[in-house]
Amino acid sequence: MRAPVTDLPIVLEDVSFVAGGVTIVERISLVLAAGSPTVLIGPNGAGKTTLLRLIMGLVPPTHGRVTWGGREDVAPTHRAMVFQRPTMLRRSAGGNIRHALAAAGVPRAKRKARAGELCALVGLDGLSDRPARKLSGGEQHRLALARALAKEPQVLLLDEPTASLDPAATKAIEDVIRAVVARGIKVVMSTHDLHEAKRLAGEIVLLHRGRVIESGPADAFFCAPRSEDARRFITGELLV
């Protein structure tokens, strides 16, 4: 009997990415294994979004390599990504999810029930008939999460999922992330909010100027950072 195909661990080996002559990510080596969320933090322009795109496989590294479960050039059938500003289709919330289910190959007869399950998971049950573009910002982010989960990914990548949201909307998103993690899905996310990182992270990766400054278990990172840059960032000093 064959073992199930998995994209984990995701391994980045000496990865760099250059665009327009500018080095955005420089010589990063990371291992992203199954388990608790990995949270990318760092100042604006640190390379967090580009690193997520490399992990997703949306862009190839200029140097080095990325492997998924020991394989290279793997189609992202087991990975999903939610961008910071997700685009809503011109249809209902439920219609958006059913469209994602169709794209994932779910049989038509099963889509309605599955869409209802996903709406409930992200706290949108009762809103499935509302036009997606009429939802609030927080509700649209939760709908984007439901669409991403339609393909039943092993790895879920989130780019600043609570940026610009109020505390109530932020809590709703974080609750969904916890529910996703409880289902065994590996979450890799970026955030500018250190408090959110403390609440969600099992592992922290601090980026600055496209390089990893420090990485490791979240508890150790916040209690006893090993580098001066990490200490300064935690205490609110600007990294320039």
In terms of topology, how is this protein built?
Blueprint (H helix, E strand, L loop, with lengths): L9 E10 L2 E11 L5 E4 L6 H9 L6 E6 L10 E4 L10 H11 L4 H14 L15 H13 L5 E5 L7 H16 L3 E5 L3 H7 L2 E6 L2 E7 H6 L4 H7 L6
Parallel strand pairs: 3-7, 3-8, 5-6, 6-7
Antiparallel strand pairs: 1-2, 1-4, 8-9
Total strands: the figure is 9
Tell me the quaternary state: single chain
Question: What's the CATH superfamily of the largest domain, by name?
Answer: P-loop containing nucleotide triphosphate hydrolases
Tally the helices: what do you get? 8
Q: In the CATH hierarchy, what is the class of the largest domain?
A: Alpha Beta
Q: Which strand order do you get reading across the main beta sheet?
A: 5-6-7-3-8-9
Q: Rg from C-alpha positions?
A: 18 Å
Q: What's the SSE pattern?
A: EEEHEEHHHEHEHEEHH
Largest sheet: 6 strands, mixed
**How many domain regions?**
2
Low-pLDDT windows of residues: none
Main structural class: alpha/beta
CATH topology of the largest domain, anyone? Rossmann fold
Structure description:
It is a single chain. The protein has helices spanning 48-56, 93-103, 108-121, 137-149, 167-182, 194-200, 218-223, 228-234, and strands spanning 10-19, 22-32, 38-41, 63-68, 79-82, 155-159, 186-190, 203-208, 211-217. The protein has 240 residues and is of the alpha/beta class. The chain has a 6-stranded mixed beta sheet with strand order 5-6-7-3-8-9, sandwiched between helices. Strands 2-1-4 form a 3-stranded antiparallel beta sheet, with helices on one face. A hairpin with a 2-residue loop joins strand 1 (10-19) and strand 2 (22-32). Helix 2 (93-103) runs parallel beside helix 4 (137-149), helix 3 (108-121) crosses helix 4 (137-149) and helix 4 runs parallel beside helix 5. The termini are far apart.
